[in-house]
């Protein structure tokens, strides 16, 4: 039983590192704010992480429309 719990724990940590790393690469170093995988991962991120990511992308892409999930009520302004 302890071995099963250990394997599940390792798989959960690996998934968090893999998806979290991909999300961070999209937010901090992506070439475009309109990457489909990055937008999806940002949409699943908790509120504070998503807000931080949107503000980071707004600073990196100042003249562009926000991607889905980072837009205000009108869809043209950043959060």
TrEMBL record:
TM region positions: 7-25
Top-level taxonomic group: Bacteria
Keywords, ordered alphabetically: Membrane, Transmembrane, Transmembrane helix
The UniProt record lists the keyword Transmembrane: yes
Protein name (database record): Uncharacterized protein
